[in-house]
Design a protein that fits this description.
1% strand, 305 residues, mainly alpha
Length: 305
């Protein structure tokens, strides 16, 4: 259930942040607000439950440098979701993201990266990946209003795939970090701290190189009115990161990915069908459902056979 909720939260967070970007006019400012809200909530939780705020930084630093990568992945995930959802739709973004996540998971397992157990590539796992790719193609190939196929915006599809790479990497890294620290909340706040520092670094670098135009959107689209829910993306980010950090060491990366995928698919279809938060309405079709079932079947084959 936690893995399922994390998957739903991931898709909802992307839609909320897409609309929040219209107000803040910057994917980086939006991401920074997300991480800051999540950090403050976690810090309060740790102080309330432990009556002090202590993070074993020295103990974490004794591990390989990649132990800090979860926070770097977080800024990639949030920023690319904000950029890709308006172009691909919630469901399309989810499908391409998950394809990238599953392919990266296979690579991580094969080479036992980031503390994962070694699971060698096999023809069965490769067949599962082919099913996942076929399902993704079915979901993302949509009919244009005037007939024929609507072309897939390739640059954004590539970015969504990179987003999936970052998701799989974050799950593996934060799962190991949670084992090292022995605490889901502390592993998550470490990840959020690195994410905040990474966001500040990116904003500073872009400002120095390009000035204000490097941070803020250049289009003349009307700015959205502020609504309090626009800053709730951090709550969903917290749900995703802490949920996956808690679940990955227990269920394993494969089953955790399946539960994430089910939650993401359900939320993506619902958001597209309802036009939630200004997302373009896209009806649920037999083609989309078939594609999602193929992706789920492929993921199950990879995980269990």
């Amino acid at each position: 259930m936690i893995g399922l909720i994390a998957g739903i939260a991931s898709t909802v967070q992307a839609s909320i942040n897409t609309e929040a970007r219209r107000f803040f006019r910057s994917p980086f400012i939006t991401a920074g607000i997300n991480f800051s809200v999540a950090w403050l909530l976690l810090a309060a939780f740790i102080i309330i439950t432990e009556h002090r705020f202590f993070i074993p930084v020295r103990e974490i630093a004794q591990n390989p440098p990649w132990i800090w990568l979860g926070g770097v992945c977080a800024i990639i995930i949030v920023t690319l979701n904000i950029v890709c959802v308006p172009k691909l739709g919630a469901a399309g973004n989810v499908m391409i993201l998950n394809f990238g996540q599953i392919v990266t998971g296979l690579v991580i397992d094969h080479f036992a990266m980031f503390g994962a157990d070694k699971v060698s590539m096999s023809l069965t796992r490769l067949a599962g990946a082919v099913l996942v790719m076929a399902g993704m193609i079915l979901v993302t190939q949509e009919k244009a209003p005037e007939g024929g196929k609507r072309p897939l915006p390739l640059p954004f599809a590539i970015l969504a795939f990179i987003d999936g790479v970052a998701c799989s990497t974050q799950i593996a890294v934060n799962g190991t970090l949670r084992v090292v620290i022995g605490s889901v909340s502390k592993a998550t706040i470490v990840s959020m701290s690195v994410a905040i520092l990474s966001t500040i670094t990116v904003i500073t670098a872009l400002t120095l190189i390009k000035g204000r135009s490097g941070i803020f959107d250049k289009n003349d689209e009307k700015c959205s009115d502020f609504r309090p829910w626009m800053i709730t993306g951090g709550i969903f980010a917290l749900t995703v990161v802490s949920g996956n950090a808690a679940v990955a060491p227990v269920l394993g990366t494969g089953l955790n990915t399946i539960m994430n995928l089910i939650g993401m698919m359900a939320a993506g279809l619902t958001i597209d069908a309802a036009g939630f938060l200004g997302i373009e309405k896209k009806p649920v079709t037999v083609r989309k459902v078939t594609g999602m079932l193929l992706m789920l079947a492929g993921t199950a084959i990879i995980s269990f056979l």
